[in-house]
Amino acid sequence: MADSPGIAQELRRTPLYDRHVALGARLVAFAGWEMPVQYEGVIPEHLAVRNGWGVFDVSHMGQLHLEGPTAHEVLQRALSNDLDRIGDGEAQYTLLTNERGGIVDDLIAYRIAPAHYLLVVNAGNREAAFEWLAAREQRGSTVRDESGEYALLAVQGPDSIEQLGLADAPAFTHAMGAVGGVEVMVCRTGYTGERGVELMCPAEDAVALWDAIVERGATPCGLGARDTLRLEVCYPLHGNDITTDTDAISAGLAWTCALDKEFTGVDALRRVKADGPARKLVAFVMGEKAVPRHGMPIEGGGDVTSGTHSPMFDVGIGMGYVPAAHADVGSELVIDVRGRPKRARVVRKPIYTREEH
Length: 357
Known about the structure:
The protein is an alpha+beta fold. Helices cover about 20% and strands about 35% of the residues. The protein is built from 8 helices and 19 strands. The strands form 4 sheets. It has a 6-stranded mixed sheet. The chain has a 6-stranded antiparallel sheet with strand order 15-16-17-14-19-18.
């Protein structure tokens, strides 16, 4: 799950804006928010998360609550994954899909209670997701956008759990806890491929929580490192790798779709699954010195959706859609990098794994 980029005329600020300014962060417009893209630099922040621990302000993400006796039924019909697979205190990565099977948003659904779900959605898709669910409310369910009430900090890295003084827990679970004297919802989720948590607290407690984490030695990290980290582990970014015009099967997200249940767009997805996708989202590593970027053409009818220079491998990496015939691991690609053809090779996802590095 990610945040769709965009520029708004009036940028919103998270409760931690003053802390970012004080730390000398470079601030950029992102999904209608003024957000830190980096502090010390993308590479040191990236390496801090891979080798130790770092903290990200992701308070721009949206928080939608769906409650009521029919809340579960409404979400089962709206979301691609099967909520029957999780219980109270658990979470699930899932998709909000349109009638064509396109991805309105990718999100995490947290089951608070049988009749209460919290959805953490991408900042740029918050209004679209809320309107989509509000239009599908039925008697006995209510959706509320409480995004402004919360702050959300992502604390990621192999040392994160111990440094926070938290007990370990399985991935995609959540429970109430405390960090630095601040009551938080501790969510064992993240967007970096490392161990870690996302900590949700009331907006008024955000500064105290941030200060407590930084004082314990966490490296403040911006959106730049968040992007390079997620791309090394091939997590899709909505607006780039997945959109309302791309389907989950072609994007390699079939595992998030319970095609044996009824939900919006399921018939279209069943057809793609049965026929096989015409194009597939692949991961690739450059074979020549070059940094791929979003929108660059791939020879034969493909295009790069995300690209960067990998701090862990010191080479250009990326993801992109290519014809299914060219999507097998080991396939050679030719990418037009600013008018120059550069060789690349399709690799298995994820590009980076801790065990293999």
